[in-house]
Amino acid sequence: MRITMTVNGRERSSEVEPRTLLVHHIREGLGLTGTNVGCDTSSCGACTVLMDGESVKSCTVLAVQADGADVTTIEGLARDGEMHPMQQAFQRNHGLQCGFCTPGMVMAAVSLLEEVPHPTDREVRLGLEGNLCRCTGYQNIVAAVLDAAGSTQEAGA
Amino acid sequence: MTPATTTETDVPTGLEPGGTDQPPDEPAGPVVGTRRERREDPALLTGEARFTDDLQIPGALHLAVVRSPFAHARITRVDVSPALAMPGVVAAFTGEDLQGEWAAPMPCAWPVTEDMKSPPHLPLAVGKTCYAGDGVAVVLAESNEAARDAIDAVDVEYEPLPAVTDLAAAISDEVVIHEDLGTNTSYRWELHLDDDAVERAFADAAHVVRERYIQQRLLPMAMEPRACAAVPQPFGGDITLYSATQIPHILKIMTAVTLGFPEHQLRVVAPSVGGGFGSKLNVYAEELLVTALARKLHQPIRWVEERTENALGTIHGRGQIQDIELAADADGRVTAVRVDLTADMGAYLQLVTPGIPLLGAFLYCGVYDVPAFSFGCTGVFTTMTPTDAYRGAGRPEATYAIERAMDALADEVGVDPAEIRRRNYIGADRFPYTAVTGLVYDSGNYEAAAAKALDLAGYDDLRAEQQRRRAEGGPKHLGIGISSYFEMCGLAPSRVLASLNYSAGGWEAATVRMLPTGKVQVVTGATPHGQGHETSWSMIVADKLGVPPDDVDVLHSDTALSPLGMDTYGSRSLVVGGVAIDMACDRVVDKARRIAAHQLEAAAEDLEFRGGEFSVRGSPDRSVPLAAIAFAAFTAHDLPDGEEPNLEAHVTYDPPNFSWPFGTHVCVVEVDEETGGVEVRKYVAVDDCGNQINPLIVEGQVHGGIVQGLAQALFEGVVYDADGNLVTSNLTDYLVPSAPDVPSLTLDHTVTPSPTNALGVKGIGEAGTIGSTPAVMNAIVDALRPLGVDEVLMPASPLNVWNAIQRAQSRPDPERTTTSATAGDTNADAGGAS
Ligand code: FES
Ligand code: FES
Fold it and tell me: Which domain holds residue A143?
């Protein structure tokens, strides 16, 4: 089947099999390997992308369901060579170690702040519940999201 | 020597040059000791980093493995022809088809005793399968989907045999798994130092505690599943093996040996690796299969693991029954420790399976001054996935046993757990301390770290609150758990490894090379997979050579770039690999000094090296920067007689001792007697890893380590059913904690530099995991002691906690008695830890 979506601001049209998952289409079809696959039970969140502004686990969506959608992957966050404030906050706060969960975690965190711009520690933890990290113990991920929320606040003030 | 312990939060950064005596007008200060952001991060944060499965490999065939659904079965027939008829399938092979590919069975590098029994272990089983997940055939196809679809079409006939999932059943040899061995016992390893002294201590003891603890099996669950790809190179028969591995160097040697492949024609590359925790410290069937098939078919072959396969086919951790006995005098001073373990090897011995319990053997006396000790361990085969190194590897198990037993002793003697520890700590004035085992602990101040942790936790107030609440009654119980840990890491002095019968050395290699333009290239044999080596190594070099850290490139994880290395595990990278780099910098400066002396027409001894510049002592206008020396060494136009061109040094460093980090963790829990629910209210950790190169990275290692240890205490445990099926085979059944499941941690540290290396550093990668599990479990048992509970099985799920309460309350004698959880109990309560 032929599908067309806007991926990181660019229109991409491709032929996909009906059973192809969005995550495999992104990784293999479009060659955007920043989005990772960490499980086969929609448990880990490593595959999280934004679809029409909302975070989704791209292993739970068929590529054909994303026909016509606007998709942002981790590769689409930086602007003009500058990392997104969330990416910067992750680096500042050492919110990543091996970095495998990181693309999904960052996308989920971006989406979380869209919904709750000034979350508490608990709200951040609950908001990232669907994203597993085995390295960081989450502490610095939470710190990064709170930091990013703070800088957003400052920028807006 | 008694190294000073600094208890301030500020870390001393007095590494030379550019240390604390640096003139204040120097533009750039030392970077070692600062919270420098990681240079690794941008690539990982933007999706540019390449993990193994991200590699684009034109023409690669995808491998999928047909896995046994039975724990134990004879393979009576394998027919791959239906798979060959499937779309996209190119080839398929049975275990028998590939038997000729193996020059040797899969490696076990640690034959712990002369008579250790080890069954031949082939990448694909032939004739018999010994655990659910054991590979029996492979399919190669044009896409991963086609390969995966086709494995279902492979026709395998099995004749099931009884599973062995219980250690007591395994030892009984009722069902012998590897018939040729005649027994399920692989080895018995004992450490007898002075048995009479141990006997006497127990005979004379005023107090004796005998405890049995169960270390449930765990899944390492690195977030990146394993993946590998073998790519034949044009002409000459070379092969490059890409793998999500912690050990490219060891993997290269072992792959060459197992395949009978010339080692010099094999290159192993570990691209970005998404966590390991020991699970990628191995030589796996799939790595051997892709390489053998690439050799056979002259085509690139790739494989990526699915999560369910990861649970089945990647090593498991822990899996021990621990019997520990303490003898103590009337005041609770420990006079002897006696330990006996039964360790679950799983179906086969992987790379270091049998040695894991031995890595803990020397730690069962803990941070205490214990005069008599004996240890024994029986390694047994079961029909489950092989066990091997998982974060801490033997040392968390040991620490768990002694720290839980110290709480039992406190209860027995009738003193506070903090007090029983104070009475037994090795005093700060005793270091370097020669333990009863003969090992020498480099430095320590256990009491200072403990005092700081107790203070930060508000220990006295917590005990007061606990007393008040106990008097008031109520279903919620406050529990306070202490764990004072230490560990031996920085693996390892090669001679000590030899004495333990380990087949390799424990050195690490480093090269530091000045490039003609003054930039620096560092080659390390350590292999990072999340630890931030590039950042830390560049910081060490920056201070030593007086260059900005960004001018230092760090090459690693590719045996063509870094031909020598012993890789990353056992908290060894900084203590062995980082120290090697420090030494290589010294040699670079030594050579540069000779060239500078020649150029400045001064004696080498009269030159000072500071801030990247040599100057003549007393006449600071006569100076030359290191970068100029590097260029001069490159042009070689004017070098001292006999001096070789170029400016580089290679060091292979074999550490004189392990490093011995330590600390105290305090965990505070609320346990609900009615639901069995446990809530962690506070967690305080004071760790001491000597000098810190980058505190930001140290804290990250501690956070992650603590949460992994806490997860063993509260959430995680492998469950097999009686038929040997793995019940917890994915992330919905195996409970890796997510962010809301874990507490916010309070960290602090003390600094007791190691006197055995110039950087004064100790390892920190495993410390958190080692310290945390007993702290959490001690807290839970502490909360429930008024109910007569003296043991709760891990993981302390609501069900296991509730069961422990019921068991205690149905016991006729409410007095604390010897805990005797059996392997059978565990199966009932924790679903098959043994
Ligand atoms: S890959 Fe794990 S949730 Fe999508
Ligand atoms: S950084 Fe490794 S899994 Fe999150």
Answer: 85-148
pLDDT (tens digit per residue) in B527-578:
999 999 999 999 999 999 999 999 999 999 999 999 999 999 999 999 999 9
Cα B52 to averaged position of ligand 1 atoms, centre (Å): 17
pTM: 0.94
Can you tell me the distance from the alpha carbon of A46 to that of B73, in angstroms, rounded to the nearest whole number?
Answer: 36
DSSP string for B292-329:
HHHHHHTS-EEEE--HHHHHHHSPBEEEEEEEEEEEE-
**Residue to test with chain B: of A73, A86, A120, A138, most B Cβ within 10 A:** A138
CA distances for B705 relative to A61, B700, B764, B769, angstroms: 34, 8, 9, 4
Is residue A48 included in any domain, yes or no?
yes
A24-65 pLDDT, tens digit per residue, is 999 999 999 999 999 999 999 999 999 999 999 999 999 999
What's the CATH code of the domain at A135? 1.10.150.120
User: For residue A135, which residues of chain B lie inside 8 Å, CB to CB?
Assistant: 223, 275, 530, 700, 704
Topology agreement, domain B52-161+223-275+280-313 and domain B507-653: no
B391-488+658-813 is classed CATH 3.30.365.10: yes
- Say if CB B524 and CB B581 are below 8 A apart: yes
As its CATH architecture, domain B52-161+223-275+280-313 has: Alpha-Beta Complex (3.90)
Domain positions in chain B: 52-161+223-275+280-313, 391-488+658-813, 507-653
**What is the C-alpha separation between B408 and B425, in angstroms, rounded?**
16
CB < 8 Å from A in window 677-706 of B: 696-697, 699-700, 703-706
Flag residues of chain B having pLDDT under 70.
Answer: 1-28, 813-834
What is the predicted pLDDT for the residue at A157?
32
Note whether B225 contacts A: Cβ–Cβ < 8 A.
Answer: yes
Supply the pLDDT for residue B4. Answer: 52
Do A137 and B272 make contact, defined as CB atoms within 8 angstroms? no
Strand ordering across the sheet containing B662-672 = B476-486, B662-672, B678-688, B746-749
Ligand 1, residue A58: give the atom nearest the CA: 4
Q: Of the CATH numbers 3.30.365.10, 1.10.10.10, 3.30.43.10, 3.40.50.720, which one belongs to the domain with range B507-653?
A: 3.30.365.10
Phi, psi of B404 (to 5 degrees): -70, -40
